[in-house]
Amino acid sequence: MRHIYLDNNATTHLHPEVLEAMLPYLGEIYGNASSIHWFGQEARRAIDLARERVADFLGGSTDEIVFTSGGTEADNQALIGIADLIGKPGSRIITTTVEHQAVLNSCRHLESKGFRVTYVPVDGLGRIDLQAFADSIDDDVILASVMLANNEVGTIQPIREAAQIARSKGILFHTDAVQAAGRIPLDVRELGVDLLSLSAHKLHGPKGCGALFVRSAIPRPVLVHGGHHERRMRAGTENVPAIVGFGQACQLAGSRIEEHSRLTASLRNRLEKGILDRLSHVRVNGCREHRLANTLNVSFEGVDGQMLAMNLDLMGIAVSTGSACQSDAMEPSYVLSAMGCSEGVATSCIRFSLGIDNTVEEVDLVLDALTNLMEGLRH
Predict the structure, then answer these.
(1) Which residues are catalytic?
(2) In 3D, which of 373, 246, 234 has the Cα closest to residue 311?
(3) What is the DSSP string of 264-292?
(4) Domains of the chain
(5) Among 207, 154, 215, 217, which Cα is nearest to 187's?
(6) CA gap 32, 12 in Å, rounded
(7) Which pLDDT tens digits describe the chain residue by residue (379 residues)?
């Protein structure tokens, strides 16, 4: 059976050049990067180079990059670490109703510790109201966290404007850029953010590695305590092979963002047009003006999204109904629900997320499969 992978927002394949860069550090170069001997210093030089590549990818400096185990840890470090540093019970944090669970559950944890959290709503396209965001800030707010691009519908938030509002009111601003990295250009200076989260496996790097950008002028949040690793900001022996792969992935992604965007947008538009032309009672979810080029979220009226995804899987086509972190939850998409969608719309959605390796032929095969499946499933 031919397999077609359209779930790149869940994870991407490991790029061959990334694997090649990692291999020496899975074998002969095995030293602990904190050791002073030759073996350790070889590993340290590799980490330093990777840190330079991640910093260049973001437009930051090397002393502002902290390696983590992934985007989830980076989000936790940003929110919980900052709350521990400068907050107290009663302090407020502002976020949105459509954040990744790594942010939402960090906020819920802080609420259990006495912090207060304001969840700014989004409109029917998944975008926050900047005026509502500004109005929610008072003297008790210490941090705001707004994702750059949504992982389910691809909607891109007005992060630059939100960060400007936060800065004008003297509060720190974090953005979860995990889904945006490698798909739109990132420049932390231009965005004006204080903290930014990344994950390697979303841009053809290895799983189990990520990074948190921490602007040099702000307090340094700590989540994992122990030794003096990562400038005392994240204790634990560094995962050298994964960090090397992450650096290589960032270098590759930065050099081909325009190509990636152009190709995936063309395929996404072909898939979207084909669905709308061939099938009735379908709805495209999210903001079609401000969204990731590779992401298409569609609700198929009268069809259970999980059932459709499973039937497509039996035909060799990998899609999802939303975030992979929520795949075991038999509930409507909380993102679509927050956007005001009915339960029927939120339970009948499919997320197609394309990658650089997908082809026109694959898109046409998916359209044929959807056309063949829909009548039977609706019946």
Answers:
(1) 325
(2) 373
(3) HHHHHHHHHHHHHHH-SSEEEES-SSSB-
(4) 4-12+256-373 (3.90.1150.10), 16-255 (3.40.640.10)
(5) 215
(6) 28
(7) 789 999 999 999 999 999 999 999 999 999 999 999 999 999 999 999 999 999 999 999 999 999 999 999 999 999 999 999 999 999 999 999 999 999 999 999 999 999 999 999 999 999 999 999 999 999 999 999 999 999 999 999 999 999 999 999 999 999 999 999 999 999 999 999 999 999 999 999 999 999 999 999 999 999 999 988 998 889 999 999 999 999 999 999 999 999 999 999 999 999 999 999 999 999 999 999 999 999 999 999 999 999 999 999 999 999 999 765 555 556 899 999 999 999 999 999 999 999 999 999 999 999 999 999 998 888 7
The span from the CA of 336 to the CA of 357, in Å, is: 28
Nearest of 75, 67, 64, 94 to residue 189 by alpha carbon: 64
For residue 95, the surrounding DSSP H or E stretch is: strand 92-96
For the purposes of burial, counting CB atoms within 10 Å of the CB of 308, is it exposed (0-12), middle (13-18) or buried (19 or more)?
buried
Q: Per the structure block, which two tokens stand in for 281?
A: 């009672």
Provide the angle, in degrees to the nearest 10, between the axes of the packed helices 257-278 and 360-378: 30
Q: How many CB atoms lie within 10 A of CB 280?
A: 9
Compute the 3-state secondary structure of the chain and give helix, strand, coil in percent, each to the nearest 5. 45, 15, 40
Residue with tokens 């519908």: 153
Residues in the chain: 379
**Number of helices followed by number of strands (H, E) in the chain:** 14, 12
Question: Tokens 């990059």 map to which residue?
Answer: 65
What is this structure's pTM? 0.95
- In three-state form (DSSP H/G/I as H, E/B as E, the rest C), the secondary structure along 125-168 is CCCECHHHHHHCCCCCEEEEECCCECCCCCEECCHHHHHHHHHH
Q: SS3 for 117?
A: strand
How far is Cα 79 from Cα 195, in angstroms, rounded to an integer? 9
Of the candidates 151, 149, 193, the residue with the CA atom closest to the CA atom of residue 171 = 193
In this structure, the number of other CB atoms found within 10 A of the CB of residue 360 comes to 11
